[in-house]
């Protein structure tokens, strides 16, 4: 899936992937897509919950080879 920006949050522990995602998405335009890649297992539930509470859209979430990958569309 295409993304307008990719956030590499590998090696960061909770809550840092979420903090970095918040900063990144603030700089983006409505409709743009942020791809987040992390190996923090807590992010698997934290990032979708954050997207919902901030009004952004979780387009896709997957796990592959120990990495959690999210595509979030800015509202």
UniProtKB/TrEMBL annotation:
CDD domains: SirA_YedF_YeeD. Gene3D superfamilies: TusA-like domain. The keyword Transferase applies. The keyword Transferase applies. Transmembrane segments: none annotated. Keywords: Transferase. Residues 7-31 form the UPF0033 domain. SUPFAM superfamilies: SirA-like. GO terms for molecular function: transferase activity. Belongs to the sulfur carrier protein TusA family. This is Sulfurtransferase TusA family protein.
